[in-house]
Amino acid sequence: MSRVLVTGGAGFIGSRVVLRALREGWDVRILDSLTPDVHARPPVVPAGVELVRGDVSDGQVVHRCLAGVDVVCHQAAKVGMGVDFSDAPDYIATNALGTAVVLAAMARGGVGRLVLASSMVVYGEGRYVGPDGDALPAARRQDDLRAGRFEPRDRVTGGFLSPGLTDEDAPLDPRSVYAASKVAQEHLAGVWAAETGGSVAMLRYHNVYGPGMPRDTPYAGVAAIFRSALERGDAPRVFEDGGQRRDFVHVDDVAAANIAALAWTAAAAPAVARAFNIGSGTVSTILDIATQLSLAHEGPAPVVTGEFRAGDVRHITASSARARAELRWDAQVDLRSGIREFATAALRD
Q1: HSE, side-chain direction, 13 A CA sphere, residue 107
Q2: 178 has catalytic annotation
Q3: Fewest Cβ atoms nearer than 10 Å: which of 56, 231, 287, 307?
Q4: How far apart are CA 3 and CA 110, in angstroms?
Q5: In the chain, % of residues over pLDDT 90
Q6: pTM recorded for the entire structure
Q7: Phi, psi (degrees; rounded to nearest 5) at 249
Q8: Residue 97 pLDDT > 90, yes or no?
Q9: Positive or negative, the Cα torsion across 310, 312, 315, 318?
Q10: Exposure string (b/e) for 8-31, b if CB count within 10 Å is 16 or more?
């Protein structure tokens, strides 16, 4: 039986990866810090799973957790946009330094396979098309945003652009501290693979949602923020004009992608780090998601506020063709049925 170490395995996504791995016959060990801001109460650990409480930045703990392990599924991370730049040290300590510690321990321990939880945020803005084909968007101007002109402009012509699907070869352009920390994780994993001969599948999650999602915090995703508002009896507040395009993918589909990636690392060529978009393939606007949640929850309709935040991207949607072709994975949860389930499902305290 093969053994996988799942860092962050008591969290929202990590816990679903653990359950899926158990069903697929894996022996599972979890390393999780169980920090109070994420885990208000002790997690329920499935029978037969070893839980080690510790931080990924503690090299001694990580080294002990790697005993007998064939592959690491690295989910542990500080997520979300955060409050302000004062969060930067925490993001870097957990995401960049923590990943470096894990990779160093894997190099010492001879563990040569890694599945890394990355994110769509590494792209910044998604793919855009202008009159002459693909175009690079300029940073959105404050005067445009204040006037309600939310679409990005072409860097050269200044004209407004149309969004398209982003593939894994798009340039990386992080627009937040969190995004910068995820790029750092990917670059560290790539260097580790090149120097050790290891194999890495970097899964760029798009907007993950589903039962057990953390409640509304400054670090929560937009689906959890809307869902928490409805639970309080409040209308979801939608920024800009609600036309921001995203790809919402169910947590069970993300767990399945991780299991497919575990298998991929066993067959991959040495010294390879490969990125994969993990999205549902369904393009939705933020307003559409808020509206679906309100209807399913039988709550108040969303309120479009026109507010905006520096660093927010306008459109980012995935092409997951590479994951379908190489991981043999495809999303199975229909968005509308998944949103109906999520609208009344229990959230994580």
Answers
A1: 18
A2: yes
A3: 307
A4: 14
A5: 78
A6: 0.94
A7: -125, 135
A8: yes
A9: positive
A10: bbbbbbbbbbbbbbeeeebbbbbb
